[in-house]
Write the structure tokens for this entry.
Amino acid sequence: MLNLGNKIKEIFDSKGITVVEFAKRINTSRENVYAIFHRVSIDTYLLARICDVLDYNFFELVTPEKFKQGKQEEVNTLIKQLEVYETEIKYLKEINTLKDKLSDQEEKDNQDINYEKE
């Protein structure tokens, strides 16, 4: 089982900030910071502040693999949809270009007809 407090301490140590500064930035006491380093679990609001201050996503460590896999499948589905949309956009641009050419040709033909009538 992951000891979240140990991981927080590890990342904290790598950042080179003081306990006092860290406590101030997560809005808690110095004593509570030391207690955090020994916790197995942490309130999500506090963990979010810690993530922000240490610039590390601790939530990723506690997210079940099944959830991560589901999210990856969701991302893959979105990527496939994006590819379909890109193909449709390309197709619509081609149609638009053909319409413009046809419109230009019709205009030219109408000018030729008007010129012949004169």
User: Anything to note?
Assistant: The radius of gyration is 31 Å.
